Amino acid sequence: MARPSPRRPSPSRCRAPTLSPTPASSPRRAARSSGRWRAISACPAAWSAGAAGAPRSRSAELGRRALLADAGDAAETRRALGDLARTLETSGLAPSAAVAWALAGDETARLRLLAQPEVCDALARRLVALGNDCRDPVDRDGARPDVAHATGPNLRETIAGWIHEGHRRRALGEVRARLSDDEDPWLAEVAGLLVALAVRGPRLDVVGDGTLRLALGARVTIGRRGATIAVTGPGVAPEHLALWRDEHGVRVASDTGTATGTTLAGARISAPLPVGASLLLHLAGCVEVRASSPSSAGPLFVDVGDARYCVPLGAAYLDAHGEAAVGADGACWQLALSPGEQAPTAATRAGDAPWVLARAAGRTRDTGVAPRASLDLCFGDLLPCGNGFLPLEVRPPRAD
Questions:
Q1: How far apart are the first and last CA of the chain?
Q2: Mean pLDDT of 334-349
């Protein structure tokens, strides 16, 4: 199939040297009325804003406790933040509610609100505004203030610089360390926004020429609830089917031991099956799942209903069009879950869950991004792809 001609943005849009949340004028964004945007922007964009009946000091203190909580009081703090989130959402303050849900550790509610473009945009714009309020040009030698001794404006400038350059985990860690002794509202608001906008995976969407639905992780599950890829149907288990690579690197699919089973050509499978070029299975005898791969070295594609997912079972490589690439040579970006981090539990502090990292791959030499630089993604980020191409946009997953 012939490749469409490269997209030609203005020079200022294709040379972005760092990541930054998507501006309102993004060419990938559908036009919206100015009145609607003003209404969204006027909403409090951070958890510390509170709501009617929820004093500012109370909501701010809950946020600080969520970021600093240990196993002893994390559950109680999250329950209180969940109550606050419901109040905010009922009051029509969806951006604030998204931050509260994030601090409460409710990923389902956070992503449900962030999937509304106006909510994600409002939070991303607020994070940009907070950074622009305090960022000054770095010294001529590129140095930043020594964060160990920085306070007030210097500390804010350093943290804003890290956020703009994609070092969000470092920024969040420093903010958390300071919040134990410092009640600076700027630090607290930035921390809440980072927790809300963090791309935790395993599901995210990348918008290029089209929309690529990514499902990251070495093991990807398909099921009704709690699975990487969500499906519905009678008899489908919460995690019904699993995909992974065996010890030889062969991609396999297996039922997880469900009562209703998984069938191949009408026969129930009892052992892992190699996917090969294509494999058609039925969950509980009724939900069709097709796994296929155009190339043995490329990612899997999983078709469930009307949706198609890219399942690399490892790092995902993306080309300048936002499509899956085979390996780093033809790719602009590599996306993967941060290594060595555990899934959150009831005792996990807000912001400690895994993060999706982006690394510049083989074809990003003219983007201004350092090769192999590791960047912590936030929803709304733009990934530059070089001259002649618009950047790729990182978006929350659409409802499956």
A1: 28
A2: 63
Query: For the chain, how big is the Rg over CA atoms in Å?
Result: 22
Any bridge partners for residue 205, and if so which?
A: 213, 395
Percent of the chain topping pLDDT 90: 42
**Can you tell me the distance from the alpha carbon of 125 to that of 121, in angstroms, rounded to the nearest whole number?**
6
Q: What is the pLDDT of residue 362?
A: 65
Distance CA 115, CA 127 (A): 18
Q: What is the mean pLDDT of residues 369-396?
A: 84
Distance CA 83, CA 62 (A): 11
Sign, CA dihedral 227-305-382-208, equals positive
Q: Nearest to residue 144, comparing CAs of 167, 128, 124, 173?
A: 167
Q: What is the pLDDT of residues 318-333, one digit of tens each?
A: 998 999 988 777 788 9
Report H helices in the chain. Answer: 11-14, 34-42, 56-68, 74-90, 94-104, 107-114, 117-134, 152-165, 168-179, 185-197
Closest CA to 290 of 300, 298, 302: 302
Query: Closest by alpha carbon to 215, among 207, 227, 225, 231?
Result: 227
HSE-up (13 A, CA, CB side) for residue 129: 12
Is the pLDDT reported for residue 360 higher than 50? yes
Q: What is the Cα–Cα distance from 346 to 332, expressed in whole angstroms?
A: 37
Q: Highest mean pLDDT range out of 18-32, 231-245, 332-346, 361-375?
A: 231-245
Which sign, positive or negative, has the C-alpha torsion 192, 176, 335, 165?
positive
Residues 60, 367: Cα–Cα separation, whole Å: 39
Q: Residue 181 pLDDT > 50, yes or no? A: yes
Q: Which two tokens stand for residue 285?
A: 């005898």
SS3 label, residue 41 = helix
